[in-house]
Write a structure and sequence with these properties.
4 copies of one chain form a homotetramer.
Chain A lengths: L2 E2 L10 E2 L7 E3 L4 E6 L14 H4 L8 E7 L7 E11 L3 E6 L22 E8 L2 E2 L15 E6 L7 E2 L3 E2 L2 E2 L11 E5 L7 E7 L16 E10 L8 E3 L3 E8 L2 H20 L3 H11 L1 E6 L5 E8 L7
Parallel strand pairs in A: 1-4, 3-5
Antiparallel strand pairs in A: 2-11, 4-16, 5-15, 6-14, 6-16, 7-8, 8-9, 10-13, 10-15, 12-13, 14-17, 17-18, 18-20, 19-20
Helix pairs in contact in A: 2-3
Chain lengths: 310, 310, 310, 310
Amino acid sequence: MQHIMPPPTKDLAWVMGPYQAPIARVEPGETFQVSTLDAFANRIDATDIDLSTVIQLPYVNPCTGPIYVEGAEPGDTLAVRIDDIKLTRDYAVSCIIPEFGGLCGTVYTRILNEPLDQRILLHPITDEGMIHDPNLNIPKIPIEPFYGTIGTSPTTEAISTLSPGFHGGNMDAADVCVGNTIYLPVAVEGARLFLGDGHVTQGDAEVCGVAPEVPTTGTLTVDLIKGRRLETPRIEDDEYIMSVGSARPMEDAARIAFYDLIGWLEADYGFERIAAYQLCSQVARVRVANMVDVLYSIVAKFPKRYLLEA
Amino acid sequence: MQHIMPPPTKDLAWVMGPYQAPIARVEPGETFQVSTLDAFANRIDATDIDLSTVIQLPYVNPCTGPIYVEGAEPGDTLAVRIDDIKLTRDYAVSCIIPEFGGLCGTVYTRILNEPLDQRILLHPITDEGMIHDPNLNIPKIPIEPFYGTIGTSPTTEAISTLSPGFHGGNMDAADVCVGNTIYLPVAVEGARLFLGDGHVTQGDAEVCGVAPEVPTTGTLTVDLIKGRRLETPRIEDDEYIMSVGSARPMEDAARIAFYDLIGWLEADYGFERIAAYQLCSQVARVRVANMVDVLYSIVAKFPKRYLLEA
Amino acid sequence: MQHIMPPPTKDLAWVMGPYQAPIARVEPGETFQVSTLDAFANRIDATDIDLSTVIQLPYVNPCTGPIYVEGAEPGDTLAVRIDDIKLTRDYAVSCIIPEFGGLCGTVYTRILNEPLDQRILLHPITDEGMIHDPNLNIPKIPIEPFYGTIGTSPTTEAISTLSPGFHGGNMDAADVCVGNTIYLPVAVEGARLFLGDGHVTQGDAEVCGVAPEVPTTGTLTVDLIKGRRLETPRIEDDEYIMSVGSARPMEDAARIAFYDLIGWLEADYGFERIAAYQLCSQVARVRVANMVDVLYSIVAKFPKRYLLEA
Amino acid sequence: MQHIMPPPTKDLAWVMGPYQAPIARVEPGETFQVSTLDAFANRIDATDIDLSTVIQLPYVNPCTGPIYVEGAEPGDTLAVRIDDIKLTRDYAVSCIIPEFGGLCGTVYTRILNEPLDQRILLHPITDEGMIHDPNLNIPKIPIEPFYGTIGTSPTTEAISTLSPGFHGGNMDAADVCVGNTIYLPVAVEGARLFLGDGHVTQGDAEVCGVAPEVPTTGTLTVDLIKGRRLETPRIEDDEYIMSVGSARPMEDAARIAFYDLIGWLEADYGFERIAAYQLCSQVARVRVANMVDVLYSIVAKFPKRYLLEA
């Protein structure tokens, strides 16, 4: 099985776009392994590091990629099944970044208040789960690994790996996990898949801006749906079909997600559009994936049990 | 057991405020019954009604109340435990209201596109569940009843029963259900509890703007937490402590909810504030309660299993 | 000429609604005088006052009213011409309120950063203008007085005088000034006019949340446009017709304002709707009235010189 | 004088980034001419064109560039003085694009309503001004040309020319006009200046999404401020210093603009930070530049007459 490693530091992907040379090539149907650095490029190994030396924008959240998918052409859909995610370090990193997060001033929501103080936590990982803080008497947190960031290249833009969008990217959606299939738009030849930002687990909304960040080795299987154009990422598991919207303000992210989900129910599952809208109002589920990134991400989910029976 | 009925039409509560005469009085610790009309004042019983004759703002979403709670004073907290909710009609009403909902132009998000067409659905309710549409071959939807609207009086304002806010109100949060306790701020003498807007169940976000609307008879037990000032509603069940934020844009609703939840973890559960912020980023859950009302509502939830052990 | 004084403190209007007794009555066509307290009820006369003793929500921004307009009925429009505004104190008050303003955390945009420190400025007013700070060598600021707050009663709600909305209210729009006519919806008998919140002048957006606040005596002439239903306030001066939208997020305020302005151009001035939309994109002007209040206010302006000639 | 022409169609700039080869090089202090196509690449010359054939994302709003500025290094500021803008066509183009604009559903604010119909207007330009519509009896509109789009390259991203941002871009700010100096951040060697999107004039907010679009030939003088790092674009004319913020929701754009303006007053003009905040609340002016693009743009302006005298 092919094992794709992160490139040397100077070649790490900090944007998703059509401009870098592919670091690997895969065939549709191929199962392969891929390793990722954590969101801080594995540079944090102590709690007393000055974060401003590690977090120098735009060099945050390095992805492994672009991975060229043979035969992928604009207008196709890339289906990425996540077969496995292994954590490759025995601790995760979390931190308070002074002008980043959901409950503080940021470069977008500018305020005159003093920034928060930085803080770094290292969370030991054992077979029984993740220890939030050895000094706090709380149960271990289960390991539920997923990729915070997965996406393909836009047509002409090179988008920061810190941003989610119609191309996928930094959605921080815990549904990008083992067993699930992620559908991504193909806008350029070869699709150019990027992924990274492994999370041990995550609270909905990722409210402080950082999850327990960890390097990983994953096993993926890619496939192509030829001639199927996607407008925004979709995800599927045994229980739900899901559409992801990323935008600001957050209601616009929810609108994109539901609009796409309703369109999916209409196009593939035989629902009339407004009927699907009304049914979603009764049975849909919503995940707030992030309220901290360049754009906020919302996952709208429709339970498969309410799909029309043939 | 006292049974509080909705007042005659001319006295229905269309606002939550300090100005109406109480329709009933209860004692702290008292268990009582209360009946509510549906959000359309039970006026829709056919699918060919002209909605514009039924929905004449501000006369939508009538609540039963104010219910005066003896001994409640400003600065107290009102705890409302929901013991039971019975549906008192064998069908629920849903509709598409032309300029209301999450995926259309509204009086707030004004657009020049033509409004959607109205549509009314009547959903038969049986012991096995709710039938979305007899013409569609999908499973019955389980009955999971809750109050879309529950709140107390602000100090000086009289707020439309269509709006959620710091006082509770039209949150459309499915956590306001049987078995759960809702904590509401007391801003005036007697607290003045209002409730209504029974829902058979609801999708997260209530995306089309309407749930399966139904009249109800509920059984509630109220209690007072003297001298405990709340800033926004809280909810508790066996699994979670929850704070509700209502605001626009939606991220501000999420900020209010998480800020309050973190303050709660700090004040009552021994967490240091920033530690709670970081832990929420790992284990919190979020419900998008509504993305359609005057303000959007978000429920931030902290799993009780991660509370510090004494 | 009738001179309407603010009522005693206990009767000051902190909400605009149908519940208080009128403090005065005027006839359509009548010119009268009205005096207003400043937004802090004239309680700040030194820079070392503890603001938390003065600003005790919801008792901020007292208005003079309700003024009952004889003959006003729901569905009419109230036209208020401002003939004069006299400042009745030789200094204005400005302050930094720790959790209020455009560039800080607030009760709506909740953050964990430490609040700003309070600060009070008293600005001497002379015939040549207002002195921002005697210690800073900058020119006097011209006196351009206007009412930050003017509105009528909603049908059933009692809305805080701190909030703007479809009824007018705390718009903080500098176009509510001498020589201009303000059009307000009539939702209840007698219209019930409220006004207050005199400003010596104001920067667009009122960014710190407070303008130079001052008590006033104004001269107004009211008139009725019978049977003309307004959806949101309008303003007219020699140069522009203007519509005011108040909402969050700010783009929704702008949408309301432009939607109404385009509807006005269509209904009264013979423009086809989409033609007006396109023309606004070429000649309209926009004022950001406030970015600090319960809702943000935007004034969309169409230059009269581009109205169709008859 | 060097005259920089738009490159052949296949090399037009649809993104601002570090990846394309420069099409020209200029020296600091150099005055040069530059020609630009209109936002539709000059492809619209009749009102009956099918817009969907012309507007094929992302190939809209082509810019002329990158122009390499000798000696520019990351951390410098590029000062671009606009000496002249000549319109190079005798008509301007405006249109209604079905899912684009301020008062309709868009790809970000997704709705289920039917899209607006397309509409194209061609506006004749004469020496006396622009004719909005020969069939409407309204005065000619004065020629007040400016660049809707001007910006430099980010460090690693390639941002669509349809988007504004910290790098400048598609701000649609009418202050980018003759006589004014635009300050832009330099993030990469050579700065890489891009510009285009000439507008004959524009209403604040560019509400329908399109201004009167026109090709131009401008005369510019560029200069470098070495070692001066900018966070967002700034503009200066005789009357104002101005900061531009671009974000969604619109209040965040305003926050960025005011935060930067206050920082500028503090760093260069001797104001204490909170004093500047309070003074802005009294004398600042705000332009809503656009409410239609990928991000909304706000210009916060401080009148030079209130700068501290030395």
